[in-house]
Target: Ion transporter
Amino acid sequence: MAQTNIPSWKSKLHEIIYEADTPAGKAFDIGLLLVIVLSIVLVMLESIPGMSDKYYWQFYTAEWIITIIFSIEYMLRIIVINRPTRYIFSFYGIVDLLSTLPTYLAILGGGHNLLFAVRALRLLRIFRILKITRYIGESNRLLLALRNSRAKILVFLYAVVILCVIMGTVMYLVEGPENGYTSIPTGIYWCIVTLTTVGFGDIHPVTPLGQFIASVIMITGYGIIAVPTGIVTSEFSRASANEIPVNTQVCPYCNETKHLDKAEYCHNCGNPLNE
Amino acid sequence: MAQTNIPSWKSKLHEIIYEADTPAGKAFDIGLLLVIVLSIVLVMLESIPGMSDKYYWQFYTAEWIITIIFSIEYMLRIIVINRPTRYIFSFYGIVDLLSTLPTYLAILGGGHNLLFAVRALRLLRIFRILKITRYIGESNRLLLALRNSRAKILVFLYAVVILCVIMGTVMYLVEGPENGYTSIPTGIYWCIVTLTTVGFGDIHPVTPLGQFIASVIMITGYGIIAVPTGIVTSEFSRASANEIPVNTQVCPYCNETKHLDKAEYCHNCGNPLNE
Amino acid sequence: MAQTNIPSWKSKLHEIIYEADTPAGKAFDIGLLLVIVLSIVLVMLESIPGMSDKYYWQFYTAEWIITIIFSIEYMLRIIVINRPTRYIFSFYGIVDLLSTLPTYLAILGGGHNLLFAVRALRLLRIFRILKITRYIGESNRLLLALRNSRAKILVFLYAVVILCVIMGTVMYLVEGPENGYTSIPTGIYWCIVTLTTVGFGDIHPVTPLGQFIASVIMITGYGIIAVPTGIVTSEFSRASANEIPVNTQVCPYCNETKHLDKAEYCHNCGNPLNE
Amino acid sequence: MAQTNIPSWKSKLHEIIYEADTPAGKAFDIGLLLVIVLSIVLVMLESIPGMSDKYYWQFYTAEWIITIIFSIEYMLRIIVINRPTRYIFSFYGIVDLLSTLPTYLAILGGGHNLLFAVRALRLLRIFRILKITRYIGESNRLLLALRNSRAKILVFLYAVVILCVIMGTVMYLVEGPENGYTSIPTGIYWCIVTLTTVGFGDIHPVTPLGQFIASVIMITGYGIIAVPTGIVTSEFSRASANEIPVNTQVCPYCNETKHLDKAEYCHNCGNPLNE
Model:
């Protein structure tokens, strides 16, 4: 593919829209994020009962302005990229398209509720906001530690789910439909609510035996919350420990390593570290 | 015992049914697990009100197919093993038998509710699914760390239960039956619900003094959740720490493994490790 | 004080009743614990509505048997000790006396409810059961780690209480008595319920602003639960770390330390460790 | 500024009021804290329904005594400081003023409710009580560890909020206003209540799909509570670890302290540590 044929305005726009290294690219990113946040806040406000009737025209106008901004952004993204199809059928490409469509469809007519639901898809653009974390260096280490402990946490969650299936069935048999445990899935739902210490209280044991089993489940849940914590913490600690010997100075005389940060002389042979 | 007398087809079937090292053995395991999961899902669906009436014949047919598969599996397990009585009276043997019986008993007649309860015992076969964790290497380390901290966690849970007994009685005396604390066991149940931060809300303090005591219990529960977490985490950290230093050197004289990193002589026979 | 004047039967009984080193002392302890547990279970059962009427005579008889056992124990404790007054006015002495009185007072007449409350004091004897932990070695290390982190945890709880006082007042002003926040102490109680992630639901925010503030409180509570956990865990880890170099063997040839537990030869110079 | 012109009584009072090193300064601090606590308790009691009518005169008198004490304190603080404007417009200066005003305004007339709200501002004086922690050495280390892990915790909370926005919208679409999820903000509020394992139960899923999604949210919340805990714990552990290894050797040549345990030469001047 002849890279040199790309016009300079196109490669410049590409830099602004898809990258964030230049000041213009950063400004574009932050501006777009503000519009996304605004569009999300509008969807939220419109969902509050009474609001959409009271401020109909304000919502209508704001809706169209945001849709036009998103449409321009979408077209620009297609124009400046080398292989448009690759962007169009990517996850972000589809989300970007879906976030502009609902308003246009509303002109052609269509059920209000359905359109509202589709418009809520705009929320997925929120993932773009996650890019902010790029500016915060810490998130990488967080993700790394989580990825390392992924296998252990999955085994743990698998054991929790099996425990909930068994105890949920037991509670269904003990309490029965007359006390709110209408089916085994309901019992499992209740068991997850209890084991995770959420405890809505929409369903709760009534019989003494049920309360006793519930007590056992609660104490179990209280005890095993320690497991994921232990996994993640030991992973973080290991990551920190590997981090601690920051100082990579090596004594040029005796090859001793792991000096203190401020060390100027080798603690092993007494010769100067830097000359 | 004369191992050589066992016919080759029997030892081959034994390998497939009881072991999971060969491809055929793995396939048998996974196939069986799918049938178990299916049978559990069916029991769940049937428990939903209305479902068992609506899809009576579908449930009936699926029930019989699964029962026949389980029966064949049960008989095969008895045939291919050397000492059948040992399997029959083992935990899994009894569970396997109980998971086939209910459908047969239904022909002879019998209370629907009782049979349903017995059929729910099929859930215990779910423990076989736990064997999946065999394929995930992490679960061993998890279990080891939990087993090491078992004694400490038991002491902790013992202290929690005693605390709940005392505070539950206090709350019964303070709030009394008119506020939902109908008996001391109910008070203890409430105290466990509160201390573990579950908080159903089916019973809750009404008097100012009761609310004050509840506040103290809640803050205590919030504080001491740190204890099991601390126990498990330090165990995990220690496991991780012990993992790192032992290296894979093997003594060329006595084949002893797991030497310290800096070891130059074998700690078992005293000969040099590297020559 | 002339120690030699004590009759041998008295010192022998003292050993049995107050100590737990001899087999007889252990048997006395365990027997007493069983009676205490039984008396607690009886108090619990009697508190269940309907029970005390149905099994009046059984409760009455059991009550008297336990009271007589406790009375004999109490008198023996006074007789065999050198300075009875010291025992009588100690915490356990008063609890032991209070656990025998209610039944005797019942003969003289007296309000049933009051006597029941006094009898519940017998629960304090449960602390004697805590002595069981003496037989489990782990509890000492647990207590030590907790005692070391006591100061940090108190500072943390102090900050939590101040936060709850402020946020509880804010919620009282925002939501007001019409939404269940009838007074500032009620607001503080609600804030503790929320921050500790218990969440009874007896009181909950109704206004949008109240729900927003509640969200902030909940996320704060979710985040700062990490603090006591972090304190206790680092304390446990430190205790474990100090524990790890269990092996204190020193090589008699090169003075190398920190050998593996099973090491028979020094890993540094290859000479035998024990001769 | 001519420091020498300040009269000695002024500098002495300054020492008592603003500092806490001398016995008089400490006594002043503690006395003031007691009055603040008393004023807070009074505001709380007055908020309880019925109380302010029943004990009108007692509250009225106490109110005036406390107001006069606070007024004297406020004026003293202005007199003894060198640059009064700096104190008056500082955070504490404004809070101190606001804590005296309401009672004076009450004479001029004014809405009772508004004045009560302003008087609640007196609660902000509670921050002065936080100064107590100065006497407890542990709080500094606590704050340091929290400050070090601030960035990581913010990234985590940011991810939690985004997750709640998305899942709250999904629940609004799945359950709808007829099941209590009246708007998207309400859905987000519910999601925060659930993810943080608080679980009031004022809103809870009713449809099977909603309950399934809720189960996923709860298990997620149960799992990711490990993240802040892991962050803070590894920070505490690192703080503890950095504390342990540095020993108390002092270089006899340059008086440098905090050498590594195994150091034989000073890392600062290169001279031998032990001769």
User: Anything to note?
Assistant: Residues 8-131 of chain D form a domain with the Four Helix Bundle (Hemerythrin (Met), subunit A) fold (CATH 1.20.120.350).
